[in-house]
Specification:
The structure holds 2 protein chains of 2 kinds. Chain A is 24% helix and 38% strand. Chain A is α+β, with helices and mostly antiparallel strands. Chain A has an 8-stranded antiparallel β-sheet with strand order 1-4-5-6-10-9-8-7, with helices on both faces. In chain A, strands 2-3-11 form a 3-stranded antiparallel β-sheet. In chain A, strand 5 and strand 6 form a beta hairpin. The longest helix of chain A has 16 residues. Chain A starts with a helix and ends with a strand. Chain B is 62% helix and 3% strand. The chains are: A alpha+beta, B mainly alpha.
Chain lengths: 183, 390
């Protein structure tokens, strides 16, 4: 009985920590109006995190699209590097790879499958596709698209297990990316 | 999450065990057939087996049979009676580190293998790590940790990017190292093995001096045992004392370490650049003796490190390094791309166009051609617009 009460208390506590909402079909704006984007309809958005946009369809470990915005000086906290307008797109991508490698032991040996220039929100940035294995040997693929604009670093990313989920939901990510507009 | 949970469990277990005292243990008996002597030790070996299995399936162990066979041969020469029990692996990690699990699996990071200059130096490290296994230091230390640095050690795990696990044996052997006494014992016993196997014992202090200098020069800030200045200073002092009057080996075997590990050394350098570990690369390549261990275009990587560091004067050092690499190896494409990019940024469009065109003609099918093509078009456009700068 005591265990049941404990579990209920924990569920209530966790329930209060995160809130979710279904995504609609129209564009949504960032809290500070710096960008707008159209998210995949009927996905679940984590609404308790106001600094980032994070959506998933089946669970954050199975597929997720994430959009972040950081001041250029805080762009790469793990490697303690800044972004600035003098950086070329490939240099920005190089810093993003270093930042990812520094962010965890699983990512330290990531493979870069694609690294190309890309137009993001109308500006020139980069598009990376990486792969890494988790502790159980399961391959995960991620796409990271980054761009600098008016002193801020924008990252739009897609994360999914390589098996089944990545290819299936990549078109949803690409539609989201195409809809991304800087204000 | 698993790391947090394990760390907290370990911390709790450690606190519960406060007051226990470590007992000196005899070395493992039985050579290749050595087995744990108690249920506690059996549990630690089983835990080590789990760590080894995780490392293997997570793709962090280098799959290079020739290099693995090389390091295994050296270990077998040092510990002939444990042949088949001690297994040496190479980890795809650039830190200066090596560690021995209590089940006889020894892991050498690529980063440390890239620093050795001969087989005797590799043997010195393997002698040290193998002694940790043979003398059961993990088991002794797991007892010891319970009674001393328990909570601090447990908390250290949480923020330490070891190899993805928080097993207490890894904490002990890989992160904090062992007690000073046990490390000194590993030095002394490892040294005896080094001499008995016919390696040059005078190379051991050279190895630790070289690493100590690099750690100091590059300001490495890592929790790994061989990445810390005090640990390296102790190794250096111990091996210097042990080898003080040591003669060279009478009939040394041909040493093929440098040529055998040339590919790993270059791959490690590239990996360091990809991780923006520019200070380490600069510290490594400013040593003339060690520069000679790399291909003629090694200055390209030095240029990349200067670009990443971005200190005052680095822009000129970077361009000079790229030009030096091109002079030494005109067909080495990446140096042309790197120089072309910097010339574009500096507004020297004619020169940028030349370098980027050269790159594109040399580098067929490379991943970053799209960037070079874009920069080339940008340089041409700006030149046509009459924006030539310096």
């Amino acid at each position: 009985m005591r265990r049941l009460i404990g579990l209920l208390a924990l569920a209530a506590l966790l329930g209060g920590c995160a809130t979710y909402a279904l995504t609609g079909s129209g564009p949504v704006s960032a809290e500070d109006k710096s960008y707008s984007v159209t998210l995949p309809p009927n996905w679940v958005r984590l609404t308790s995190d106001s600094k980032r946009v994070i959506v998933t369809r089946d669970g954050f470990g199975l597929q997720r699209i994430m959009i972040t915005r950081a001041e250029a000086k805080d762009a790469f906290p793990k490697i303690k590097k800044q972004a600035d307008d003098k950086l070329l797109a490939s240099e920005l991508a190089e810093l993003q790879i270093a930042e990812l490698k520094a962010s965890g032991s699983q990512l330290a040996n990531l493979s870069v499958l694609e690294n190309v220039p890309a137009r993001i929100g109308g500006r020139v940035g980069f598009r990376l596709r990486i792969r890494f294995l988790n502790d159980d040997g399961l391959a995960f693929d991620q796409v990271w698209c980054g761009v600098l604009d008016k002193g801020h670093y924008y990252l739009i990313s897609f994360h999914a297990p390589e098996l089944y989920y990545f290819d299936k939901y990549l078109p949803d990510f690409d539609r989201t990316l195409a809809s991304f507009k800087l204000s | 999450m698993r790391r947090w949970a394990a760390a907290l469990l370990f911390g709790a277990a450690a606190l519960c065990g406060a007051g226990a005292r470590a007992q000196p243990l005899p070395p493992l008996a039985g050579g290749a057939a050595a087995a744990p002597a108690s249920d506690d030790e059996r549990r630690i070996w089983a835990e080590a087996d789990e760590v080894a299995a995780m490392l293997a399936r997570s793709g962090r162990v280098l799959d290079d049979p020739a290099l693995t066979a090389y390091v295994q041969r050296v270990a077998d020469r040092l510990f002939p009676e444990f042949k088949g029990r001690i297994h040496v692996h190479i980890l795809k990690a650039q830190s200066l580190n090596a560690f021995a699990l209590p089940n006889g699996d020894i892991y050498l990071h690529e980063g440390i293998l890239a620093r050795f200059r001969n087989e005797s130096q590799l043997a010195a490290l393997l002698g040290h790590e193998g002694t940790h296994f043979v003398d059961r230091h993990s088991f002794q230390s797991s007892e010891n940790v319970k009674s001393t640095t328990a909570l601090g050690t447990a908390l250290a795990v949480v923020g330490v990017p070891v190899v993805g696990l928080a097993a207490n044996l890894l904490v002990v052997s890989s992160v904090t190292g062992y007690s000073r006494e046990l490390e000194a014992q590993a030095d002394a016993e490892g040294y005896k093995r080094l001499v008995a196997a016919g390696y040059d014992p005078r190379e051991a202090p050279k190895l630790f001096k070289m690493m100590m200098d690099e750690v100091k020069a590059s300001g490495i800030d890592e929790p790994f045992f061989f990445s810390t200045h005090p640990a390296l200073k102790d190794r250096y002092d111990n091996y210097l004392r042990l080898s003080k009057d040591a003669p060279p080996p009478k009939d040394p075997a041909p040493d093929r370490y440098l040529e055998t590990f040339a590919g790993l050394r270059l791959a490690s350098l590239k990996a360091e650049i990809s991780m923006a570990r520019c200070k380490q690369v600069i510290a490594l390549l400013k040593e003339p003796e060690r520069r000679g261990d790399y291909p003629p275009y090694v200055d390209y990587y030095l240029g990349e490190a200067y670009r990443q560091r971005g200190d005052k004067g680095d822009a000129e050092r970077m361009k000079a390094a790229y030009r030096k690499a091109i002079a030494a190896a005109p067909d080495f494409a990446p140096a042309h791309r790197a120089l072309g990019m910097q010339l574009l940024k500096a507004g020297a469009y004619d020169a940028a166009i030349r370098e980027l065109e050269t790159y594109l003609s040399l580098a067929q099918g490379t991943q970053d051609r799209a960037y070079a093509q874009m920069y080339l078009e940008e340089a041409r456009k700006r030149k046509d617009q009459g924006k030539e700068g310096k």
